[in-house]
Amino acid sequence: QDSVVVIGAGQAGAQVVQSLRQGGHTGIIRLIGEEPHPPYQRPPLSKKFLSGEIGHENLWLRPPAFYSTQNIDLIPNTRVAAIDRDKQRLALENGDTLGYGKLVIATGTQARRISIPGHDLPGVVTLRGIGDVEHIRAQFETHANIVIIGGGYIGLEVAAVAKELGKSVTVVEAQDRPMKRVVSPVISSFYTDLHSKKGVAFRLETGVDAIEGTNSVEAVRLSTGESLPADLVLIAVGAVPNDHLAAEAGLETDSGIIVDGAGLTSDEAIYAAGDCTRFYSNRYRRSVRMESVQNAIDQSKAVAQAILGEDVDYDPLPWFWSDQYHVKLQIAGLSDGYDDTVLVGEPADDKFYVAYLKAGILVAVDSINAPRSHMMARRVIGEPWREGLLPEA
Ligand code: FAD
Question: Which residues of 277-294 are buried (b: 16+ CB within 10 A; e: fewer)?
């Protein structure tokens, strides 16, 4: 049968179903999501949606009527509980079952939790979906002391919004600099300075021993012995892939569902796309798991093409962005393994970029308020570095 069922109505799931219809798939298409909303963009959640600058209607990836006009069966509020590969059938949490011809798993990630004492006190939050932001915004009404555990993108974006709303904000980070996993020291120190000037406090190289409080959070006890007063604590220590459905069905997983360049899993009838996947990149000669809009969109297009019978071999040049205050960071390529950097422009002007080189080849560029350099970088990464390869910052 030619029905395609997609689990997970997020960025990737929405792209798969749209690309399938656009590509000429005429059979049944079902998009099952556990959330009550139509598919939406997550990046604004920690930016303009959190600050209240935009509302729900600006988050939808397609107008809600799109799915019915395209004859796509969007099934919200429905969680898939298990995959029966022999019968090609899904068990839904509400007790129903649903057959599939081809299945696409696009279940994304969930916020990583930490199991320290007090992690489940009221006032301790994570940020992954619309519901989380609505909850945090309600807390912003009455709470002034925010502690953010984790100095990655989401932690820093929330710090920026909270600071602009006049909150007292402290970021606690285990590493010696924020965003260490993904950017060079020059970018990290630019962001430490930026946030510090706005009044955000940092505790670097610092762990968290406990979150304290009686009926709700009152303080965060640090590994240094210091106790930070807090009435709202955001835990932003990364995400873990939702690969358990796949693993329980016996599909190959390794912190992510293993797929090939067509998005195919170890079962000929099951594909996967987006944050929940891990694949081998010929470009980077290692397996990668991406958490980005770029990957969710492009890998989903590849999956749709593969289902439509085309030959595809997805091996992207990754790109990503983060907005904090008036500053846009754009990342092109993966900088791991670089042996040299070139700084162009002035961090003091809030406009510069860092080019990452490996054996003289440009492998990645982090741009600060330099969109032209970013766009060009996406074209020339892989070329030998030379003066003039990228425009001035
Ligand atoms: P998701 O969009 O997470 O969708 C997965 C969906 O599957 C969810 O709705 C989930 O509820 C559903 N689901 C899971 N399990 C089941 C089940 N068993 N049954 C039914 N439904 C299920 N990326 C960028 O490139 N730039 C940014 O600036 C940026 N900012 C971000 C800010 C925040 C706060 C967050 C959370 C993410 C951000 N990202 C950003 C990452 C980007 O949003 C993700 O990479 C992208 O959403 C991945 O799409 P996806 O479809 O794989 O997963």
Answer: bbbebebeeeebbbbbbb
For 4-50, what is each residue's pLDDT tens digit? 999 999 999 999 999 999 999 999 999 999 999 999 999 999 999 99
Mutate to test the pocket of ligand 1, among 45, 50, 97, 293 (most ligand atoms within 8 A of CB): 293
Buried b (16+ CB within 10 A) or exposed e, 192-213: bebbeeeebebbbebebeebbb
Q: Whose CA is nearest to atom 23 of ligand 1?
A: 292
Q: Could you give the count of Cα atoms lying within 13 Å of 254 in the half-sphere of its Cβ?
A: 11
C-alpha 89, offset from chain centre: 29
- pLDDT tens string 330-387: 999 999 899 999 999 999 999 999 999 999 999 999 999 999 999 999 999 999 999 9
Q: What residues contact residue 164 under an 8 Å CB cut-off, 6+ apart?
A: 51, 198, 325
What domains appear along the chain, each with residue ranges and CATH number? 4-110+239-307 (3.50.50.60), 113-235 (3.50.50.60), 326-380 (3.30.390.30)
Q: Tell me the C-alpha distance between 87 and 84, whole Å.
A: 6
Distance CA 62, CA 385 (A): 40
Expressed in angstroms and rounded, the spacing between residue 392 Cα and the centre of ligand 1 is 34
